[in-house]
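A quick aside before the break. I want you to see a complete sequence-to-structure record at least once, exactly as it would be stored in a machine-readable document. Don't worry about memorizing anything.
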Amino acid sequence: MKKLIITALALAAIAIAPGAYAQTKMVGGAEMFPTKNIVENAVNSKDHTTLVAAVKAAGLVETLESAGPFTVFAPTNEAFDKLPKGTVETLVKPENKATLTKILTYHVVAGKLSAADLWAKVKAGKTELKTVQGGSLWVKADGKKLYLVDEKGGKSWITIADVNQSNGVIHVINTVLMPK
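That is the input. The structure line, written in tokens, reads:
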């Protein structure tokens, strides 16, 4: 009986504040809290250490800690590992900061676009997304999965969608997107 009452109270709490529990997701072995900003959450994901290092090298930490809102398509370490050997090491050098910034900001769209918003764009045939970098990405669907196509024709699947942040949303992707 006591267990039933506790369960009923927990369900009532979720009904009163539905977003408080449902929006927290696990990414890279760490809980992502919707009350924290993009950088505060990303630094805890063991799957995004390369991305975090790149964001720091590009000097984008302050930007991604700001109010936003932003939609970030966040490549995993495995996504960066798909790049030709030595690419990441070369990009994080100070002399390549402009190129690194161009690539990273190509993964960011102004505003907060949920997976539902992305699906709506696909259904409406308005698949082009303008990136903060100034380029375009195209959101596509295959069955029940969403993916992105970059300006070079590369494809990246959204593996974890709707990781809500205080200043936007992250969608985890499995390939680094490349601008022209």
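Two observations worth writing down. Confidence is low (pLDDT under 50) at residues 2-22. Residues 25-173 form a domain with the FAS1 domain fold (CATH 2.30.180.10). We'll return to this after the break.
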